[in-house]
User: What shape does this take?
Amino acid sequence: MIDDLNIENVLFLDIETVPATPDYNSLDETMRTLWDKKAGIIGKNDPEQTPADLYERAGIYAEFGKIVCISCGFMRGSTFRVKSFYGDYEEDILKNFASLLTRSYSIDKYKLCAHNGKEFDFPYISRRMLINGVKLPPILNAAGKKPWEVKHLDTMELWKFGDYKHYTSLELLAAIFGIPTPKDDIDGSQVGEVYWKEKDLKRIVTYCEKDVLTTAQLLRRYMGLPLIKNDNVVSV
Assistant: This one.
């Protein structure tokens, strides 16, 4: 799939998600009851963990979380351009990102790329768009399409080489390919606390943009291309 890929036709992306409310007690009665059911499943091997204890994981589920940042990047010549959509109002983030995809990435030649994107980023964005009443851009709408018609690349899937039980983190792949780590400040498990307790959205955006750059660097390694130089990374 990447042998004849034009990397300038790829939009790299990453999302950061948090629980929909600051804590378990902030859930309304209906969602608290539904989270209790979900927690019973995800915590079945650790019965001492209460639904309130497990609520810090709620952000990874589109039904109980929300997106606070979508960062994306693309190559233009030797320059890697990065743009982020972020804020407290998820609907605005999704509308603005959908507008970008519809306006600039609606032609068949374009692809989206994320690490573990097929299992997480792409479906999460799509689900949250539906929940927020945002029309899915064609490049995200995979319903009814054949696998080769879906314009999604996944750097983790490419690393599997058909080994479907294998999971490799972006941090580990960055290390073995000699790419600077994106996890030099926070990691995904800390995003909810940084958002709800520290109120430091800018820190989350910086982390998200590092993941996008690392994903692009990783795909370049897969393709045998040189890494992007720091001086060639610009915000737009």
